Amino acid sequence: MAIERKRKLDVSSIVPASKLAKVAAPPNVGAASPMFADQASGSIFNRWNGKPYSQNFHHILDKRKTLPVWQHKEEILDALKKNQVLVLVGETGSGKTTQIPQFVLEMMMVETTPSDDKRRKKMMVGCTQPRRVAAMSVSQRVAEEMDVTLGEEVGYTIRFEDKSSPNTVLNYLTDGMLLREAMTDPLLKSYSAIILDEAHERTVATDILFGLLKQVLRSRPDLKVVVMSATLEAEKFQGYFGGEAPLIKVPGRLHDVEVFYTAESQRDYVEAAIQTVVQVHMCEGPGDVLLFLTGEEEIEDACRNIAKEIGNLGGQVGPATIIPLYSTLPPALQQKVFEPAPGTRKIVVSTNIAETSLTIDGIVYVVDPGFVKRKVYDPRVGAESLQVTPISKASAEQRKGRAGRTAPGKCYRLYTEKSFDKDLQSQTDPEIVRSNLGTTFLTMKKLGIDDLVHFDYMDPPAPKTLERALEMLYYLGAMDDEGNLTKLGQIMSEFPLDPQTAKTLIVSPEFNCSNEILSICAMLSVPNCFVRPPKGEARRKAADEAKARFAHIEGDHLTLLNIYHAFKLNNEDPSWCYENFINYKAMKSADNVRQQLARIMSRYNLRMCSTEFGSRDYYVNIRKAILAGCFMQVAHLERSTGHYLTVKDNQVVHLHPSTCLDHNPQWVVYNECVVTSRSFIRTTTDIRGEWLLDIAPHFYEMENFPECEAKRVLKTLYKKRGREMEKSKNRR
Ligand code: CDP
Ligand code: MG
Predict the structure, then answer these.
(1) Average pLDDT value for residue range 10-25
(2) pLDDT in tens, 599-617
(3) Strand partners, 229
(4) In whole angstroms, what is the distance from residue 460 CA to residue 32 CA?
């Protein structure tokens, strides 16, 4: 069998595919016997949509065949035929993400009759991605490779966006979305094969999928699983499946990369990075540059500054095309990084996405400042935050590798060699040991995993983390004393939101403001809607003024609501958005998210209601509803120090500079904590201490409350409350 298939491959590699196409079977034969319409075999008809293959198809096919994984196609498929699970390691860019799912699909098809449409769904291949951007971008590429329309035969599914259809045979989806699918389809019956891609990223969702798939495989002997990874941790994956899964390594074809270190550590890594990029552009030969930075703002700033500096050099240097790449970038702009920029040097400034998820061809120079923005969680204080942290050695090596794909390259590490040796961890910890597991536990419970503590984790979370997550779900009322999901918990798990936001939404009818809370939750689920104009004092000032017009003095949640209302009142007009420095795309997507959430609400008969706008309680009710879900995200202003301390954990935090609050309220509820040079709470709203006693007395009880000013204030409030009750009793 293997030999036969090999011979077939050989033929197609000797005869150019375009020639083969011309001698292929006539149309009616091709259509009637799609068994032979294998892409590699050279039929002129696309088995997926019956249309003749385009010129582009053959053009890309020739290129695809040069990818390293093609040399191992036989071996890979053979191993997968004989085993349920296969672990595949390959250098980034070797074609894992784009090619392997197509190989697997092809293999699955040989065993079914492709014209049998009913079975199509059953043979769907799912390929998970930790990053939304990768799912979108790769599916687009693969649709092109298979010569079909994205959203039809090849699709993608990410939170709040499903671009797949009943015709979809290959779907790229985030690992989180596959977990959610498992909630309604526990045996993953719609898939014949699941590919866990980027397994080395060790996201929480992928880790949980590992455990889940291990169970599912026992009940589904027909299911195939491929675990794909860019790094050597692969042995660990193999071990996890009892060592039975074969491991195939696809050797990369990396060229030498020369590494440079700085002599001293850099105080300002962004500035150092910009200077290095400009230097490379000035002094080095042809080849594109890839600079790793940590986030959207930093990247946009750096892009502007690089452009400015290169501009200042005038005619002394060649032209450059500077391209940002980060997850919240609109898809059309993300695609830009793959487009050639003839006659200029491409300078890509990217987050970690470009480390292993996306491969950009033509990179010869890598500039690596050595930082990444990561989720950090301290279970002792219960706060999860995004922090800029040093990368691991494994990451540094991956980044370096990006420079040597097409030719010998250079990698500039903006830290000292000593620092590389001594300071960098060898591997990044799996996300599960540095996350708040509230959301995950809710999903796991819904998946029917009863014992969260003894689940078959590849790396178990710390006991303290487990405890904190269970405690949180308990306080939110999602779990009872025995650790079972309550009715409320069941409904919470249906929302693709974190538990606090889900709870806010579910209880909002009780505060007579579900319409408004729905809008706020939708706004919180999309990228920042404020546009910061990159250039010009005057434009920036105009943007600030525009923002100030929407500002609600009681807080940022209400400001978001104002903007949503204004957007709807102005008929979702893009030019209105432009004039007001509002991101139109973000608003449209908030509107879409709102509809999706509304559908889930109606499924559970959650009433849509509003307090009368003229009423004094209109905003009060909204603020109370937010608190009802987020009562664990409260900070208190300490009179003695002038600092905010988070409730119960007593961490010093600051209002984020973006806040609309023009005063420092005594109590605030916040949406998230971000840590840069300091800890900031972002999206904050003014609340009243009394509400804490009314809304979350079980959390704000004084016995389990550390000594602090907040506690003293609360005690006074309790006393006052007691006296008032006494008085009213006496009056009666
Ligand atoms: O997954 P892995 O890193 O092994 O490689 P891949 O993502 O499948 O990429 C294989 C090739 O496809 C690379 O040369 C990419 O540059 C190319 N590719 C592309 O041209 N456009 C995309 N949107 C994605 C990949
Ligand atoms: Mg990949």
Answers:
(1) 30
(2) 999 999 999 999 999 999 9
(3) 89
(4) 53
Of residues 360 and 517, the one with the higher pLDDT is 517
pLDDT in tens, 507-529: 999 999 999 999 999 999 998 89
Q: Could you tell me which of 409, 400, 368 has the C-alpha nearest to residue 285?
A: 409
**Atom 7 of ligand 1, nearest CA residue:** 97
Distances (CA, A) of 152 to 32, 313, 432, 591: 22, 48, 34, 24
Is the CB of residue 131 below 6 angstroms from any atom belonging to ligand 1?
Answer: no
DSSP H/E element including 155: strand 154-158
Strand partners, 413: 261, 368
- CA-nearest residue for atom 2, ligand 1, is 93
d(CA 307, CA 309): 6
Ligand 1 pocket test, candidate residues 359, 363, 406, most atoms within 8 A of CB:
359
Reported for 421-426, long-range contacts at CB under 8 A and 24+ positions apart, including other chains, are 423/390, 424/370, 424/390, 424/391, 424/392, 424/393, 424/396, 425/390, 425/392, 425/393, 426/392, 426/393, 426/394
CA of 359 to the centre of ligand 1 (A): 5
Provide ipTM, 2 decimals: 0.98
Count of C-beta atoms within a 10 Å radius of residue 412: 24
Ligand nearest the Cα of residue 94 is 1
Residue 361 CB–ligand 1 contact under 6 Å: yes
Distances (CA, A) of 37 to 72, 125, 192: 21, 19, 20
First to last CA, the chain: 92
The span from the CA of 415 to the CA of 412, in Å, is 9
Q: Determine which helix (DSSP H) or strand (DSSP E) holds 694, and give its type and residue range.
A: helix 689-695
212 phi/psi in degrees, rounded to 5: -65, -45
| Cα→Cα distances 83→50, 100, 226, 245, 469, Å | 32, 16, 10, 7, 37
Q: Which helix (H) or strand (E) holds 335?
A: helix 331-335
The amino acid present at 305, given as its one-letter code, is N
**Confidence category of residue 12, pLDDT binned at 50, 70, 90:** very low
pLDDT over 60 at 27, yes or no: no
Q: Which residues contact 284 (CB under 8 A, 6 or more apart)?
A: 364, 365, 410
According to DSSP, the β-strands at 257-261 and 409-413 are parallel
**Residue 11, CB half-sphere, CA atoms under 13 Å: how many?**
12
**Phi, psi dihedral angles at 437 (to 5 degrees):** -95, 15
687 is written with which tokens? 């609340």
Q: Is 67 a pocket residue for ligand 1 (Cβ < 6 Å)?
A: yes
* Residue 269 to residue 449: CA distance in whole angstroms: 44
- Give the confidence band of 111 by pLDDT, cuts at 50, 70, 90: low
Burial of 378 (0-12, 13-18, 19+ CB in 10 A): middle
CB 299 within 8 Å of CB 353: no
CA distance 677 to 438: 27
Residue 5 has pLDDT above 70, yes or no: no
User: Model-level pTM?
Assistant: 0.86
Cβ neighbour number for residue 640 with a 10 Å cutoff = 6
| 598, 659 Cβ separation under 8 angstroms | no
Query: How many C-beta atoms surround the C-beta of residue 11 within 10 A?
Result: 13
CA distance 70 to 6: 12
> Which residues 6+ apart lie within 8 Å of 604 measured at CB?
491, 494, 506
d(CA 264, CA 282): 23
Q: What is the mean pLDDT of the chain?
A: 89
